[in-house]
Amino acid sequence: MLIQLFNLNYYDLLDGITATLIVIFSGLFALIVVWKAIKLDAKLLKYGALMGLFAGLLWLGPCSDFLCKIFLNHNIAPVELYGILSYMWVAPSLIMAMYIGTELMIPNKKKIIIVFYTILGIIFELFLFLDTKNSFEFGRSSSGELIDSKFVYGHPTFILIAFFLISILVINGFGAMRRSFQTTGMIRKRFRLMSITFFLFVFVGALDALLSPGPILFISRMGMIVCAFLLYFALKP
User: Fold this and answer.
1) What's 32's domain CATH number?
2) Among 9, 104, 149, 195, which lies 20 to 30 A Cα-Cα from 81?
3) Where are the alpha helices (DSSP H) in 106-184?
4) What is the pLDDT of residues 156-184, one digit of tens each?
5) Is the pTM of this model over 0.85?
């Protein structure tokens, strides 16, 4: 195992370790927060924990490839599995985010919005699983040891995930910001925290999808952990 670690350059280690930390942290965070939510009977907090879990699992692809390389001395095979493991969590993460956003901002339209995004999420998953090879450009990191991938611009998976991020930004980010101006005291503070959470979530998600492994990647991935804490403080009773 140590030999394989030494074969990886600094950026590969940064890529693999940060992805693994996010996956581990999101799982632990979800378990702890769901347990607290059950004790406090806080429904939205449960959904927030599930959203954090699914969002963290978006890094399962690079995490799995890194661990395979370290322990088994080969990459994930077939390479398409890298994309599936990473993005199969988009739909459940999106639905949790939409539930939180509509419940707090536009509860009278919650059902129709959830149904709409559930349908789009299913369509995304179908394209992801049935046309994985054409959804991504698979390559190698700078050292050639780890897998790297990018969305194919113009493919339905790219168009849908871009639409999802914009939707979260508008409904959750700007929606919470607008509600913060309409309230006072602790409620205002919670809506501001939620607004910051979703702005950061969209920024981190877009940045990670566009960046190649490097120092800025570490900053963007740590931003996902910050999102989890902000969402917890925004939703806890």
Assistant:
1) 1.20.1070
2) 9
3) 110-130, 132-135, 156-168, 175-182
4) 999 999 999 999 999 988 888 888 888 88
5) yes
